[in-house]
User: Which sequence fits this backbone?
C-alpha cells in the first residue's frame, strides 16, 4: 500500500511517503510557516524521489487537528481533495496523537500539547499500547492548570511533548511524578510514524464531508449560540446550493 | 501546453468570500456547470461575513462542489485542459481553501494551473453576454471594490479610478443595517428605492472633482445623521424615500464618474460588473446614459453572474490559458491582489 502522510497543524510541516511498512521519504521543516506555499511542492518532491505518481497512491493519512486553524485546513484540504479526486482512502489522525507516536516506550503516558494562548492549550493524554498511542484523556481545548491537575491524578511519569517548554515551571510544580527529559526532536511531528499507524486504521467513511477537528467553535458562533440557546440547527443547513 | 483546435475545458474554482463555487467552462463562454454553495444564511446570524466561519464552510463544501460540477458538465478529468482558481483579492483563509483544492486537483491529474484575479473574473462574466471588444472600460462595483478599469486589450487591466473609502456595496450594507435590513442589504434597498423618491438630497461626493475616484463615506454619514436626528425627535422617516435618496446619490456618483472616464478613454464597450451590478437602479441609469453615446455600448454582466461564482473565473481563465499564464504548486492566496494603476492616471 502506497501512503502519503501530511501534517501542517502548527509551525512544523511534515510529509512522508511510505510503501507498507517501509518509509520511502520523510521530511519535517520548521524554518518557516508557509504551508500554503510549501506543502504541495514538498509532496511533489517526495513522491518524485520515491518514483511515484499521485495516481499510484492508495491512501492519504492526515493530522486533522487540533492546531492552527489555517494550518489544519491546509493539510485537510490537500488530503481530502487528493482522496476525493483520486478516489483513494483518507485516514485522519489527531495532531496530538501524531506527536505522542514519537514516544517508542511501551506503557508510557504521553501528554502532547499545543499552546493556545492565555494559559490555554490543546492537549490530550495518551498511553502507548502495543506501540500505538491510545487516548486516555481525549483531546480538548482546556486551561493548562486543569489539564495538569487531571494528568497528576495518574501519579506516573508523563512525557510532555509539543509546546510543553512554554509551561515548564508550571509542569514542574504541578506534576509530582518525574517527567522524562526528552530530545527536542520529539516535540516535532514525524509524520512517517502516523503513516505507519495509518495503515491499520479505518479510513474516513465520507471523504467529502470530512472537516478538521478544530475542538473549538469560532468566537462568533460561540457568542451567537449563547444568545440563541434553543437553536440547534445542523451546520450544513447554513449553506445552500443556488 | 498551448492552444488547441478542440474545445478548451477549464475546471474553475472560486472561494474568495462566502460562496464556494466550482464550474466547468468551455472555450471561456459556455457554462457546462456552475455550482455555487452560498453561506449567506450562516453569516446572516452575525450581520456580516465572519472570516473564520467562511473558511470552515468552504472546506465543508469544496470537494462536493468539484464532484457536482464534473457530474453536471458530464466530463471527467481526462477531458480537462486546465484548472483555474481565484487567488485574490479576498479573505485570505477563504481564498486558501480554493487555492489549495485547485492546486491539489491540478497536481493529482497533471493539469496546468491558472491563477485568476477575482476582479478580472467579475469583468469577464460579460463574455456570457457577448464577446468583449477592446478597448473596453469596466465599472466594477461590489462589496469590497468600486473601481473603473480600462482594458486596452485582452488580458490587460489598468485602474483609472477607485473608491477612496467605502466600497459601494459596503455602503449599501451599512445603511441597510441602519434601516434594519440584514446583510446583504443591496437587494432590499434597491427594491425600496424603486418605491420611494429622492427627497433627502444626500451629498454626491467628488462628483465634480477632476479625477475618476469615488467616495461614499460622506454619503453614509449624512444618511446616518439624518436617521439619528429623526430618531431623536421621534419622527419616522419613509424607508422607501431614504433608500431612494441613498441609491440616487450612489448611482449619480457612479454614473457621473463613468461618463467622465468614457470621455477621456474612448472604448467600444462599457462593462458593468460585480455584486452591485445587479442593482436595477444602476443598470437602468447606465443604460440610459449610454444610449446617446454613438461609439460605446453597455454590456451588463448577467444578473445571475453578478455575485461571486466560478463561471466568471473560468471565463477569464480561458484568456489566461491562451496567453500562457500559469502558476506552479507554490501558488499562494494574495488577499490584497490589485490591478496596476494606469501609467497616466496621476491626474
Ligand atoms: Zn466578488
Assistant:
Amino acid at each position: 500500500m502506497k501512503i502519503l502522510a501530511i501534517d501542517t497543524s502548527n509551525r512544523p510541516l511534515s510529509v512522508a511517503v511510505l510503501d507498507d511498512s517501509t518509509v520511502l521519504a520523510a521530511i519535517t521543516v520548521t524554518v518557516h510557516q508557509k504551508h500554503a506555499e510549501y506543502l504541495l511542492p514538498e509532496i511533489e518532491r517526495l513522491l518524485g524521489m520515491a518514483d511515484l505518481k499521485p495516481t499510484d497512491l492508495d491512501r492519504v493519512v492526515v493530522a486533522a487537528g487540533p492546531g492552527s486553524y489555517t494550518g489544519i485546513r491546509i493539510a485537510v484540504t490537500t488530503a481530502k481533495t487528493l482522496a476525493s479526486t483520486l478516489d483513494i482512502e483518507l485516514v485522519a489522525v489527531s495532531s496530538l496523537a501524531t506527536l505522542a507516536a514519537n514516544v517508542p516506550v511501551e506503557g508510557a503516558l504521553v501528554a502532547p500539547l499545543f499552546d493556545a494562548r492565555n494559559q490555554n492549550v490543546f492537549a490530550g493524554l495518551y498511553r502507548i499500547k502495543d506501540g500505538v498511542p491510545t487516548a486516555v484523556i481525549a483531546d480538548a481545548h482546556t486551561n493548562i492548570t486543569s489539564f495538569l491537575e487531571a494528568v497528576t491524578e495518574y501519579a506516573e511519569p508523563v512525557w510532555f511533548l509539543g509546546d510543553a517548554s512554554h509551561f515548564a515551571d508550571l509542569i514542574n510544580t504541578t506534576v509530582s511524578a518525574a517527567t522524562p527529559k526528552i530530545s527536542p526532536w520529539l516535540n516535532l511531528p514525524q509524520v512517517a510514524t502516523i503513516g505507519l499507524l495509518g495503515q491499520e486504521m479505518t479510513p474516513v467513511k465520507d471523504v467529502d464531508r470530512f472537516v478538521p477537528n478544530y475542538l473549538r467553535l469560532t468566537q462568533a458562533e460561540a457568542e451567537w449560540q449563547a444568545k440563541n440557546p434553543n437553536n440547534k440547527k445542523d451546520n450544513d443547513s447554513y449553506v445552500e446550493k443556488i | 501546453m498551448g492552444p488547441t483546435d478542440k474545445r478548451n475545458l477549464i475546471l474553475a474554482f472560486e472561494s474568495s468570500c462566502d460562496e464556494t463555487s466550482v464550474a466547468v467552462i468551455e472555450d471561456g463562454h459556455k457554462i457546462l456547470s456552475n455550482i455555487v454553495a452560498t453561506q449567506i444564511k450562516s453569516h446572516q446570524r452575525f450581520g456580516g461575513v465572519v472570516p473564520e466561519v467562511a473558511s470552515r464552510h468552504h472546506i465543508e463544501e469544496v470537494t462536493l462542489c468539484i464532484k457536482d460540477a464534473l457530474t453536471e458538465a458530464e466530463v471527467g478529468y481526462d477531458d480537462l485542459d486546465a484548472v483555474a482558481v481565484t487567488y485574490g483579492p479576498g479573505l485570505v483563509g477563504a481564498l486558501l481553501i480554493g487555492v489549495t483544492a485547485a492546486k491539489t486537483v491540478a497536481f493529482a491529474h497533471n493539469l496546468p494551473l491558472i491563477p485568476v484575479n477575482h476582479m478580472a473574473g467579475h469583468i469577464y462574466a460579460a463574455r456570457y453576454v457577448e464577446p468583449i471588444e477592446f478597448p473596453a472600460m469596466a465599472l466594477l462595483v461590489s462589496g469590497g471594490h468600486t473601481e473603473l478599469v480600462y482594458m486596452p486589450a485582452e488580458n490587460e487591466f489598468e485602474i483609472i479610478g477607485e473608491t477612496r473609502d467605502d466600497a459601494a456595496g459596503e455602503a449599501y450594507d451599512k445603511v441597510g443595517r441602519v434601516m434594519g435590513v440584514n446583510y446583504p442589504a443591496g437587494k432590499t434597498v434597491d427594491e425600496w428605492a424603486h418605491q420611494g423618491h429622492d427627497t433627502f438630497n444626500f451629498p454626491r461626493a467628488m462628483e465634480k472633482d477632476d479625477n475618476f475616484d469615488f467616495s461614499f463615506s460622506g454619503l453614509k454619514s449624512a444618511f446616518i445623521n439624518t436617521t439619528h436626528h429623526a430618531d431623536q425627535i421621534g419622527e419616522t422617516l419613509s424607508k422607501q424615500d431614504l433608500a431612494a435618496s441613498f441609491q440616487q446619490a450612489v448611482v449619480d456618483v457612479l454614473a457621473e464618474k463613468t461618463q467622465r472616464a468614457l470621455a477621456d478613454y474612448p472604448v467600444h464597450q462599457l462593462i458593468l460588473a460585480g455584486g452591485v451590478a445587479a442593482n436595477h437602479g444602476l443598470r437602468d441609469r447606465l443604460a440610459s446614459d449610454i444610449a446617446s453615446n454613438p461609439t460605446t455600448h453597455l454590456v451588463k454582466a448577467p444578473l445571475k453572474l453578478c455575485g461571486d461564482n466560478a463561471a466568471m473565473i473560468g471565463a477569464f481563465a480561458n484568456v489566461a490559458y491562451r496567453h500562457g499564464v500559469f502558476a506552479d504548486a507554490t501558488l499562494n492566496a494574495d488577499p490584497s491582489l490589485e490591478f496596476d494603476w494606469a501609467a497616466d492616471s496621476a491626474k
In short: The longest helix of chain B spans residues 239-264.
